[in-house]
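> Could you send the Pimeloyl-ACP methyl ester carboxylesterase prediction when you get a chance?

Sure thing. Input:
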Amino acid sequence: MIDRRTFGKVLGVTAASLAGLGSPGEPAAFGTLKQVRAGLLDIGYAEVGPAHGPVVICLHGWPYDIHSFAEVAPLLAARGHRVIVPYLRGHGTTHFLSSRTARNAQQSAIALDIVALMDALRIEKAVLAGFDWGSRTADIIAALWPQRCRALVSVSGYLVTNLEANLEPLSPRAEYAWWYQYYFATERGRTAMRDRTKRRELTRLVWETVSPTWKFDDATFERTAAAFDNPDYAAIVIHNYRWRLSLADGERRYDALERRLAARPVIKVPTVTLDADRDPFTAPGDGISYRDMFTGPYDHRTLRGIGHNVPQEAPAAFAQAVVDVTRL
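Output:
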C-alpha cells in the first residue's frame, strides 16, 4: 500500500497543495463550507480543486462526516479534480427546507439527495466515491442513473439494501458486529442518540471497534462529532437502521425506486471496489460475494491493516482508486 507521502510524489503534490490539511499533529480540515438548495434540502458541502476540473463526489458514512475525506480531497485536487464532499441529510450543516418533510433515511431518498445536489450545481456527470452509507448511495446512483456516474469507487462493494434478505439472520459473529443496529431498534437506543453525551460515547465506541488499528486522537473525533449535533441527526440515524430491518416504513413516493433496487440491478459503469481487511463488516472471499453485480470495467483491491473508515485511515489508497477508476 502506498502512503500519503509516496502518493504526493507520484502526483507531484506540493506543500502548498496540502496547506488545507493543517499542521503536523493536527487533524486535517476543510476551509469555508458552501450551501446550496437541492431537492428537499439545503446541503452543506466542501469543495476543493479547480472549478472546471472533472468532478469527484465523495460520500461519507455513519458515524462519520465530510472530514473522512479531508486528506483525500486535496490529493485529488492536486491532480486537477473538482472535489465535492457533501454532508448527508441529518449531518452537519445540511438541513431540511421544511419542518413538514418526513425525516426519512431510506436508501433511495438519500440517493436522490445527491442527484438533486448534482442538478443544483449543474454537474452532469461525476465520479462517485464513498464508504458505508456513502457506498450504498453511490452504488444506487450508478445502478439507476448510470448517465450521471462517470465511474464508481465503492468500499465494501455492492451495498444496495435488500429488505427481504435483511429479514434473515446472519451468522452470530456477523450479528455481533451490528449490535448498534439492534440497539437503535429500541426506544433506549433512540433516547441515547438524542442525548449529546451518550451519542458521543456510542459513536466513539463504534469508531474504536470497527477500526481497531486506527489511532485517532480526541481532536479528530470531536471535529467529526460536531456534525452529529444537527437537530435531525437522531431521527435520520434511527430511521435508517429501523427501515433496513423493516421496523420503520418508507415513503410511498420512493416505492417505485425501491422496487427497482429490490431486483438487484447490476452496475455497468467502471468500478473499483475496496475491501478493508480489519473491518468487521467486510465479507470473506476478497470481493467474490458481490463480483457478479459489476458488469463493466472492474478492479478490486483489499487494503491490509485498514478498518471501516477507509478514506480517513488510508487516504492515499482511496485517492489512488479514484484516479485509477477513470482509466479502466
